[in-house]
Amino acid sequence: MLLTSRFADGLAVGSDLVTNAETAVRQALSGLSAPADLVCFFICGEDPDDVSRAGLRVMSMASGASVIGCSATGVIGDGQGVEVTPAVSVWAATLEGARLTTFALDTLRTDDRFVVVGLPERGPDDHAAILLADPYSFPTDGFVERSQEVLGDLPLIGGLANAIQGRGAVRLFADGEIYTEGAVGVLLSGPVNVSTVVSQGCRPIGPTMAVTAVEDNLLLELAGQPALARLEEIVSALDEDDRDLVASGLQIGVAMDEYAERHERGDFLIRGVLGIDPEREAVAIGDVVEIGRTVRFQVRDAATADEDLYELLDAHREEFGRVDGALLFSCNGRGSAMFGTADHDAVALRDTLGPISVAGFFAAGEVGPVGGHNHVHGFTASVLVFSSHPTADRPYDH
Q1: Helices 48-61 and 17-30, interaxial angle, to 10°?
Q2: Rounded to an integer, what distance in angstroms lies between the CA atom of residue 383 and that of residue 395?
Q3: What is the DSSP string of 94-159?
Q4: How remote is the C-alpha of 16 from its chain's centroid?
C-alpha cells in the first residue's frame, strides 16, 4: 500500500472476496489524513454473488464517502495488476470542498431509439465524470459518442466493466446499491483539479490521405484511388516485422485536427480495420467517417504502446507538474497479453508521475477524450489524474 495525505489505495488478493474487500478498504482509508470523500473500487471474482457481497462490504465500510465500483476480469492497485485472480482494489481520496454527485444510468426504448436516463444536471464548475458501464446492457458507444449534445465538453473517463463469467455476471455499485445493468458514475465539481491522459498506443504507417469516397463504414477511395489499392501499396513497402503487425491487427487513425500541418502519432482517433471487400476494392473500418476527413493506417505492438504511454505521461508531468493520485482504466488486451506483465501500465504511471496512489481495472473498453471529444477505445490506457496544486492561470484543468 502507498500512503499519501489526500489519496491512497489498497489491494488484497485471495480466495475470500469479502475478506479482500475489508483488507483493501482498510488499507486505502488508513492512508488518508482526513475522511474519504470519494472511494472507487474494483473486484475480480469467479462467483457474481461473492462479488456482490464484497461490493456491499466495501460500500458499508466507506459509507461516509461517495462510492462507485464494478466487477472486472482484473484489477490494478498497489503499483501492480492482478488478472483473472480473486482480488479487490480500493482507491480513496480526500477532496476538500469538491462536490461529488454519484449517478446510475438506465436506458428506455422509444419507437426508434434508446434514451439514457439518470444523468445529473450539469453545472458551470463541473470538471469531469467517471463512468463505469455494463457493456452487455448499456449503449456505451452511442452514449459516449453523442455525450457532447448533453454534457458539452465535459470529459468522461472510465471503462466497460466485465466479469469472469461474462454476460449476466457484471456488477456495478454506487452508494450502497448493486446494479446488474446500465452504468454508474460520479460527477466531479467545484475545487478539484483533474486532467486526462489517453494512450491509444499506435504508430502510423504510410502517408496521410483524404477520404474521397465512402459508404457507411466502407472506405471506397483514399486520395482518389481505390482504398484497397492504397492499402496494398502501403503494406508492400513495409518491412517484414511491420507486415506481421498488419496481419495481426491493422488499425486506422482518423485525424482529430484537420488543419494541422502534420499528422503524427497521437494526432488520431484510432479505430480497427474490420476487413476488406475485394469486389468493391474497399476497406471496412470500425467507424463512419465523412468525405474529406484525413486518415492514416496504423499498427500496434508492445514497444509502440510502451513508448506512447511513457511519452504522454512525461508530457503531462511537464505541463501540469505535481500529481498525487490517478485512476487507471487499462484494456484487458494490454497487461500480460501485450507486455508480458500485468503491472506495465501501473508501473508506467509511477515511473513518470512519481510515487502516487494509482488504482483501477482491466476494462472491456476504455472511455476517454481525444481531441476534445469523448470516445470509447480499445487497447487503450485511459487515466484520470488528480493534482493537489492547481496552476495559477488554470485553476481547474481538464
Answers
A1: 30
A2: 20
A3: --TT-EEEEEEEEEEE-SSSEEEE-PPPP-TTEEEEEEEE-TTTS-HHHHHHTHHHHHTT--EEEE
A4: 28
Q: Which has the closest alpha carbon to 205: 247, 161, 164, 171?
A: 247
**What confidence tens digit (pLDDT) does each residue in 149-195 have?**
889 999 999 999 999 999 999 999 999 999 999 999 999 999 999 99
Q: What is the amino acid identity at position 288?
A: V
| Cell triple for 358 | 494509482
According to DSSP, the residues that pair with 124 across neighbouring strands are: none
List the domain boundaries for the chain: 7-199+304-387, 202-299
**Cell 488499425 maps to which residue?**
251
- Give, to the nearest 10 degrees, the angle between helix 344-353 and helix 302-320: 30
Give CA–CA dist 91/40, Å, rounded: 5
| Cell representation of residue 5 | 495525505
Q: Which three cell numbers stand for residue 99?
A: 462536490
First vs last C-alpha separation in the chain = 27
The values of phi and psi at residue 220, to 5°, are -95, -40
Beta bridge partners of residue 282, listed in sequence order: 277
pTM value is 0.91
372: left (phi over 0), alpha (psi -120 to 50) or beta: left
* Residue from 326, 286, 83 nearest 198 by CA: 326
The alpha carbon dihedral of 74, 310, 10, 144 has a sign of negative
Residue with cell 452508494: 175
Burial 162-185 (b: 16+ CB within 10 A, else e): bbbeeeebbbbbbbeebbeebbbb
What are residue 273's phi and psi, to 5 degrees? Answer: -90, 120
Cβ–Cβ < 8 Å for 202, 299: yes
Categorize the per-residue pLDDT at 389 as very low, low, confident or very high, splitting at 50, 70 and 90.
low
